[in-house]
Design brief:
Length: about 375
Amino acid sequence: MKFTTTMIHQGEEPDYGRSGDVIHPIHLSTTFARVDPEKPTGGFEYTRTSNPTRILFESKVAAAEKGKYGLAFSSGLAAETNVIASLLERGSRIIAHDDLYGGTSRLFEKVFSKFGITYEKVNLKDPSNLSSVRGKYNMVWFETPSNPLLGIIDIKEISSIAHENGALVVVDNTFATPALQNPLELGADIVLHSTTKYINGHSDSLGGALVLNREDLFEKLVFHQNAIGAVMSPFDSYLSARGLKTLELRMEAHSRNAMEIARFLRDHEKVEKVYYPGLEDHEGYNVAKAQMRKFGGMLSFRYRGDVKVFLKRLRYFLLAESLGGIESLIEVPYYMTHASLKEEDRRKLGIDEKLIRVSVGIENIEDLLEDLQNSL
Ligand SMILES: Cc1ncc(COP(=O)(O)O)c(C=O)c1O
């Protein structure tokens, strides 16, 4: 089965003995009755541990990433917390790409450092930088494309170097989505998603997911999923499962619009630089072309004019954090999504007052281009 066929049919077998629902219902029950005190009758005990609607989403997201196991959490950061709390110990060392969602850096720097887990930033766009890291490290963590500079990291190459060192590889696939890129097939150990973004796709559900193939890691993660308790709710599971059914269609539309907007911005005199991996002069174009099916809906650019005036003039691009919904959103990472990074770190990477990040929606492209043209 191809991607969209799998997303529509996976886990949706009608329950002919009862209602015959074509669409899987939302199971809101927090607890499940049994006839035998020694074992659950229908396979479920308590919703934190497991729930039929969450299982539906977990099986779909696993199939989407071509992995064996899927796990769903209450947010992307809850999924991240689960990875670290389950698989690392005091004294563990994480190597992460230097361009990372601000909340992820904050989690490493402000929370897990208290438990003796250290975190170092390395530019992983050049894999030789990972080869040059001295000493043992336990986990390599990156987003590709990265947030907000759309850096491309060679998943195969980095996974092979990390594995030689005995480290696990975690790829945050939130920007690319499983419709465009499958990191497990390229050597990653764990794929992570903020399902809040493209997977749900409509800016109305908060969630996170992990997908992996290794049973030993899954056992640790599923134990901690229940022990920590930051699980995805039945309603969010239903919305995220529904989102997966149209993910591929949406990603085609997001990618098509983003490519047109990237080209338009590149040719505009008021724009200094565009960061979009689908442009042939992007430094990661060849790697992106090899590991992604399309280039996605996210781009950033540097504006030569007054950023605040430009933002105020826009009609369709709403000024808001987050990304991956059907509507176009725009933001300034320096003030917004990446404000939690240290000032010097932001400036070193080029995240300043002139950098604008766009989540290109699926509105009509002529309307979007006209809006940008008028406002620039
Ligand atoms: C790439 C990436 N990973 C993880 C997260 C965290 O996800 P959540 O906001 O669902 O906790 C975000 C949030 O913006 C993100 O952009």
